[in-house]
Amino acid sequence: AHKPIIFSGIQPTAVPHLGNYLGALHQWVKLQDNAAEGTKLFFSIVDLHALTVPQDPAQLKKWRKEAFATLLAVGLDPKRSAIFYQSSVPAHAELMWILSTVASMGYLSRMTQWKSKLQLPEDTTLDDSTARAQLRLGLFSYPVLQAADILVHRATHVPVGEDQRQHLEFSRYTANSFNHLYGPIFPIPEALISPAKRVMSLKEPTSKMSKSHADEKSRIILTDSPAEIRKKIKVALTDSEPSITYDPISRPGVSNLIEILSHLEGISCEEIAADFHTASLRSLKEHVADRIAYHLQEIRDRYITIMDDKTGYLESVAEEGAEAAQANSRETMRQVRDAMGL
Ligand code: ADP
Ligand code: NA
Fold first, then answer.
1. What beta strand segments (E) does the chain contain?
2. How many CB atoms sit inside 10 A of residue 294's CB?
3. Ligand 1 centroid distance, CA of 33 (Å)
4. Which residues form a coiled coil (predicted)?
5. Which of 93, 244, 268, 270 is the most buried (most CB within 10 A)?
6. pTM, 2 dp
7. What is the pLDDT of residue 1?
8. 183: region left, alpha or beta (phi > 0 left; psi from -120 to 50 alpha)
9. Ligand 1 mutation pick, 30, 52, 71, 163, max ligand atoms within 8 A of CB
10. Counting atoms of ligand 1 from 1, which one is nearest the CA of 201?
């Protein structure tokens, strides 16, 4: 059996938000802290993925560093986890090319990410010439890079939020296609879907909280001050029903607040709804804001210390992480080249 190898990544397209934390980063830290002897852990700032939509170079540079600092601030420990920028490990892009020679166009064209990023209707197909003209190759083939990220580390487990299930399925399919043609090089990676429900946007609670939403009040970022957290929760979109109930379908706004609280405190949504049943919406919001602020306090303090550091700490951690990731991926590429006759 393979020794467990855990890989996951996050895009540096803004400071990570509460959805990233509950859906991903918090789980990464728990996996790290409970990892069995011999488990290897790789966590990447996937900056090449950020390029699938236009980026301002100076802004991207800033976001990369902020995302890196966030991973350290939430509790990833460079002694146990390799933390690195994807672009520092060229084997990710090299394996992407190789996988693109086995990946299915039909499968990729059915995936929804390119349609949603271009804001095209779900039922758009590549026969549509407008869609073809707007679509850049990198946005279309993004899932192949994601498969390469995972497979280049021979990852056995990939902790992600619920929203990434479809992409992981594509990675498994592509690994199987490769193994079928060239021999059993890649373990078939398993998704470790976070127990947290998707955190929804505070402004539009029927879509997920995301870095790509223009309205900054739609998300709590991990570096928000307690005052900023209170302000955003106060204006979060809810409804005007008189009592507090947990009902994600007909009351998505209130239910999102309850789910956030549930995950932070380890109390069930039903229990929270019962406790607050006769309380005002205002007091629920105040309580949720206080608890978020409490849970993010330590992360925020560490983040500020890391960003203020003048000793090159972050850069040296990034260099060590890249070296560990290079060493691990070099071994994969040796096997891949050998199997393919390169
Ligand atoms: P975003 O979608 O905000 O750009 P990424 O694509 O970089 O975030 O995702 C990083 C990780 O965060 C992934 O594992 C993803 O599943 C998780 N994630 C992103 N948004 C949410 C959300 N609203 N709720 C739960 N998990 C999320
Ligand atoms: Na995403």
1. 5-10, 40-45, 81-85, 157-160, 190-193
2. 13
3. 21
4. none
5. 244
6. 0.93
7. 61
8. left
9. 163
10. 23
- CA dist., res. 276 & res. 262, Å (int): 13
Enzyme catalytic residues: 117, 208, 211
- Ligand nearest to the backbone CA of 160: 1
Give the strand pairing for 157-160 and 40-45.
unpaired
pLDDT digits (tens, 9 = 90+) for 149-159: 999 999 999 99
Is 198 close to ligand 1, i.e. is its CB under 6 Å away?
Answer: yes
At residue 192, the pLDDT reads 95
Q: Are 192 and 157 in contact (CB under 8 A)?
A: yes
Token pair 């991990």: residue: 222
Residue 316 structure tokens: 């040296």
Cα–Cα nearest to 192, from 55, 48, 24:
24
Please report which ligand is nearest the Cα atom of 13. Answer: 1
Which residue, chain included where needed, has tokens 């507090």? 244
What is the distance between the alpha carbons of residues 168 and 166, in angstroms, rounded to a whole number? 5
Structure-derived torsion over alpha carbons of residues 250, 253, 258, 264, reported in degrees to the nearest 10? 140
Q: Which value, in Å, is the radius of gyration of the alpha carbons in the chain?
A: 21
Is any ligand 1 atom within 6 A of the Cβ of residue 208?
yes
The residue contributing the CA closest to ligand 1 atom 14 is 160
Cα 76 to ligand 2 centroid, rounded to whole Å: 20
Q: Verify whether ligand 1 is closer than 6 Å to residue 284 (CB atom).
A: no
What is the rounded CA–CA span in Å between residue 63 and residue 307?
12
Q: Could you please report the per-residue DSSP string of 37-105?
A: TT-EEEEEE-HHHHTTS---HHHHHHHHHHHHHHHHHTT--TTTEEEEEGGG-THHHHHHHHHHTTS-H
What does the mean pLDDT of the chain come to? 95
Residue 80 CB neighbours (<10 A): 13
Tokens read off for 104: 């299915």
